[in-house]
Amino acid sequence: MAKTILTVDDSPSIRQMVSFTLKSAGYEVTEAVDGQDGLDKAKLKSFNLVFTDQNMPRMDGITLIKSLRALPQYKATPILMLTTEAGEAMKTQGRAAGATGWLVKPFDPNKLLEVVKKVIG
Predict the structure, then answer these.
(1) What's the CATH number for 4-120?
(2) Each residue of 12-49: pLDDT tens digit?
(3) Which terminus of the chain has a lower count of CB atoms within 10 Å, N or C?
């Protein structure tokens, strides 16, 4: 059975690139346009992995991570930040919220797949 991944980003081009990269490697991908949309979709279906941007309308990535971690089915699910934010303070906030890892945009598709394989196989 294919591993399912939720990708949350307000940029259509980033969502498209992430989805294309993951789908070409055999993963099943669901896209969400912002944190609130991501949370709504995560409540309807369980995912093996969640990618989220930080800066989005309606709900940012840190708030999304905290909201997901509050749900029993997402206590141990890997959640990776994929963002332009590279500052140590932001990374510390992300870890405190429950982020599993951090990737900086623009991303290298091979590096993205390497990280995905590492966290969910």
Answers:
(1) 3.40.50.2300
(2) 999 999 999 999 999 999 999 999 999 999 999 999 99
(3) N
